[in-house]
Amino acid sequence: MKSATERLLAFSFANADILLEVDASHRVRYVCGAVQSLLERPEDSVRGVPFEELVGAPDRIMVGQLLRALPNNARLNPVIVHLPVGGDTPASALLGGYRMDSDMPRFYLTLAKARIGATDAPDGNHDADTGLLDRDSFTQSVQSKLAAAREQNVEAKLTLIRLDEFDAFKDRVGGDAMAHVMEEIGGLLRAMSIDGSTAGRLGDDRFGIMHTPSVDPAQLEKSVAEISRESDPTGAGLAVSGATVELGPDELSEEDRRRVILYTVRKFSDSDDPPLAGSLADGMKEILADTVKRVQDFKQTIADNRLRIALQPIVSLADRSIHHYEALARPTNGQPPAGLVGFAEEIGMTQDFDLLVCHKAIDILTHARESGASVAIAVNISSVSLDSQLFVKAFRALVAESNWVAQQLLIEVTESMRIRDLAGINGILQAFRADGHKVCLDDFGAGAASFPYIQALDVDFVKIDGAYVKRLETHPRDRAILKAMVGLCADLGIGTVAEMVETEAQASALVELGVDHAQGYLFGRPTLDFAFPRAADAAVAAAAELKPRMALRRRGAVEIWGR
Fold it and tell me: What is the full DSSP assignment across 182-222?
């Protein structure tokens, strides 16, 4: 008959590869199991060493915080740790255990090799000072964890933390002490987070953590403040504010609930508005309520088709003839369109917005074709939408309903969030070009990413950021940069469009520099379609009014897109 000890060992090894007994000072007193296989060292070399030394350096502070925070007679929820083995690709393991309160307090810990696909997957970019996820990686992690928690019927909470008077504290304690404080805070937040991997640094003085209900946010704030006091020569430390964000009202769908949470996190990261100056908890409630309303209003705007399209001409600088129009979305409630588009990108709803604009632009093209006019229109499509297979499929199906549409519908790629997968986006753009679309890259020269983009993305046109046009006559450096960009595009066989052209002097300078096309108030303001779906009538009328100024002549679709 098996002894009780043998049974316990058998049950333990059914879920773990290594069993360890660790004393109150965190030193290993007993170890058995696949030590050589998992840790790549013999059992004898493990006994007597601090347990933290058995995990990778980035995880040691977190593990120390985890063990110190574990109450007596409490179970340690499994967390992911990395082991200092395997060279450039260290192995991952699940750390679990139990802290027993007895005459000789002990931790009984387990290490189990992580399952492929469960914990070995890349977990995002990390902040160098704290080891926490950066903001973008944290928001992605929150999204996946919220979905997983819902599926498993597990309650998860999101707490946001702000360190007040952070800059003054940083100056007071000095570089080395500050580095230690940030490492300790990072370790603490990781230790208290779900899986040890759902805590992030959202700004210099702001953090986020997803945790179970067993974690007390108030105690977490106190622990962060205590870490800061230990390194402060004045003993004052940091004032710490926290707010646990509710997951949104019941009437929200699960997808909308995640959108609200993610936008709220970003708002918390960036905002210095008055709501954050007082009680953080009250401020976050206000932000959350506002976000819920904006999400609901946005969805209603799409559902009720509350958008009109304004058309603004883009002309050929050689003869001032209209090359094509840009479709500009105008909400019927008077909301600024830039804010609406930016909000859509923030909450991950650009696909619905962009697809509605495409529908409307195709309606305009169809009515124009029926009235005998030859019109070409550019639609703005966010890089976020292009990253969605569902959007790409829906867009191509929409265009395929009429075999002539692609020739007259230019795609203008807009980007408020950095494109991560340039190769993947380029593959999509080439599929669009094969369908017959011309592709334009918006806001060329506006950021550091522009030249890598033009290197990676094969496009037909670039739209030069209007800031260069505005400073063309007064800033020689901007003129030189603009000249270099135009020359580069010419060498690559890419057409150029200058935006925000308002004066004849600017137009003449652009011609001198070799710019192909231009857009701006000098050539025509956006023309609103006040009687949709008869939008083509407005577009044709607007073109007729502009004819004397721009020597407009009718051309076929092929000629319009030709250079």
Answer: HHHHHHHHHHHSGGG--EEEEETTEEEEEE-TTS-HHHHHH
Res 121: pLDDT: 39
Residue 559, token pair as written in the block: 């000629």
Buried b (16+ CB within 10 A) or exposed e, 369-405: beeebebbbbbbbbbbbbbbeebbebbeeebeeeeeb
The beta-strand segments (E) located in 332-435 are 377-382, 409-414
Residue 446 inside a domain? The answer is yes
CA nearest to 38, candidates 80, 76, 92, 119: 92
Structural domain harbouring 50: 4-113
Nearest in space to 82 (alpha carbons), one of 73, 93, 74, 72 = 93
Cα–Cα distance for residue pair 560/563, rounded to 1 Å? 8
- Give the end-to-end CA distance of the chain in Å, rounded to a whole number: 89
Whether 399 and 548 share a structural domain: yes
555 strand-pairing partners = none
93 and 145 both lie in a single domain: no
Is residue 408 very low, low, confident or very high in pLDDT (cuts 50, 70, 90)? very high
Helix ranges restricted to H, 40-98: 57-69
Task: Give tens-digit pLDDT for 483-492.
Answer: 999 999 999 9
Q: What is the pTM of this model?
A: 0.63
Q: Please tell me the distance from the alpha carbon of residue 275 to that of residue 271, in angstroms, as a whole number.
A: 9
Higher pLDDT, 541 or 334: 334
If residue 46 lies in a helix (H) or strand (E), which one and from where to where? Answer: none
User: Cis link prior to 78 (omega < 30° from 0)?
Assistant: no
Q: State pLDDT tens for residues 493-535.
A: 999 999 999 999 999 999 999 999 999 999 999 987 533 234 4
DSSP 8-class letter at 71: P
